[in-house]
């Protein structure tokens, strides 16, 4: 089953399960936009379809192979500036983090 067929099926099930809620949302949109339900329905359907589709797309961390993780990590690491000056030992020491407490 391709993603579009799956999305359409999921959307159909969603619309049936939430029929009353969608009617309520449509009526609220009619009131606040001064448009007819017929004008609102295509936009609401498109929005719901977009939301359903985004739910079905699995994130990288769920689908990536170990090799894909390695490539992605190296690309991320390479995207950083290599000439950034290092912090001093004092800058990362406990003392530097709690210097302000003397003022309390």
Verbal overview:
This protein is an all-alpha fold and 104 residues long. The protein has one domain (3-78). It has helices at 3-17, 19-33, 37-56, 60-63, 66-78, 94-97. Helix 1 (3-17) packs across helix 3 (37-56). It is elongated. It starts with a helix and ends in a 7-residue tail after the last helix.
How many distinct beta strands? 0
Largest sheet: none
Strand content: under 5%
Which residues sit in consecutive blocks of at least 5 with pLDDT less than 50?
none
Domains, number: 1
Q: State the secondary-structure class.
A: mainly alpha
Element-by-element helix/strand order: HHHHHH
The value of Rg in angstroms is: 26 Å
> Quick one: overall form?
elongated
Could you tell me how far the N terminus lies from the C terminus, measured between alpha carbons in angstroms? Answer: 64 Å
Helix percent reads 55-70%
Name the average pLDDT. Answer: 85
Number of helices: 6
């Amino acid at each position: 089953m391709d993603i579009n067929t799956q999305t359409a099926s999921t959307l159909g099930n969603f619309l049936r399960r939430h029929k009353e809620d969608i009617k309520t949302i449509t009526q609220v949109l009619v009131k606040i936009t001064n448009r007819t339900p017929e004008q609102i329905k295509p936009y609401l359907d498109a929005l719901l379809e977009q939301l359903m589709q985004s739910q079905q797309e699995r994130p990288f961390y769920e689908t990536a192979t170990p090799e894909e993780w390695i490539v992605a990590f190296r690309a991320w690491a390479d995207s950083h500036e290599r000439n950034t000056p290092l912090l001093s030992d004092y800058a990362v020491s406990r003392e530097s983090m709690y210097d302000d407490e003397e003022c309390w």
